[in-house]
C-alpha cells in the first residue's frame, strides 16, 4: 500500500465482487492524495478488437495518464474528461425551452441551437 492507506494506482478488481455474466471490473487508476480513494466501475459493452481482459484494463489505465490538465494520473480515462468539457461548451450554444401540457406538466425539454455554431475546433 501507500502512506495514505489507499490501494496503489493501477489496482484492478475483476473477480468476486463483479458480475458473474458481464465483463466488468473496478480500477483504482490514481493515487489517493487525501482521504479515501474510490475505484471506477467499468463495464465492457463491446469488445470489437477482441482484446483480453488484461489488455483492456491496461489500455484503460494508460488513458488515465494522458489528461493534459493534470501532471498525475486521474480517476477516469482522459476521453471522458474531454467529452465532459465539450458538452459543457456545447451547452452554451443551445437554448433550452420547456413544453407543457394543459395542466402545466412538463412534456419535454427542447434544445435548439442559438444562432450559428462557429466552424472551428474546440480546444479543451
Describe this structure in words.
With 124 residues, the protein is an alpha+beta fold. Helix content is 20%, strand content 22%. The chain contains two helices and five strands. It has a three-stranded antiparallel β-sheet, with no helix packed on it. It has a two-stranded antiparallel ribbon with strand order 4-5. Strand 4 (94-100) and strand 5 (106-113) form a beta hairpin. The chain is elongated, with a radius of gyration of 20 Å. The two termini are 34 Å apart. The relative contact order is 0.12.
Write the layout of secondary structure elements.
Layout: E1 11-13, E2 24-28, E3 40-43, H1 53-63, H2 78-91, E4 94-100, E5 106-113
Antiparallel strand pairs: 1-2, 2-3, 4-5
A few lines on this structure:
Helices cover 20% and strands 22% of the residues. With 124 residues, the protein is an alpha+beta fold.
What general form does the structure show? elongated
Quaternary organisation of the protein chains = single chain
Please give the alpha-carbon distance between the first and last residues.
34 Å
From N to C, what is the helix and strand string?
A: EEEHHEE
Portion of residues in beta strands equals: 15-25%
The largest sheet is: 3 strands, antiparallel
How many E strands?
Answer: 5
- Which structural class best describes the helix and strand composition? alpha+beta
Rg calculated over all Cα atoms: 20 Å
Average of the residue pLDDT scores: 83
Number of helices: 2
Low-confidence stretches: none
Trace the largest sheet across and list its strands: 1-2-3
Helix content: 10-25%
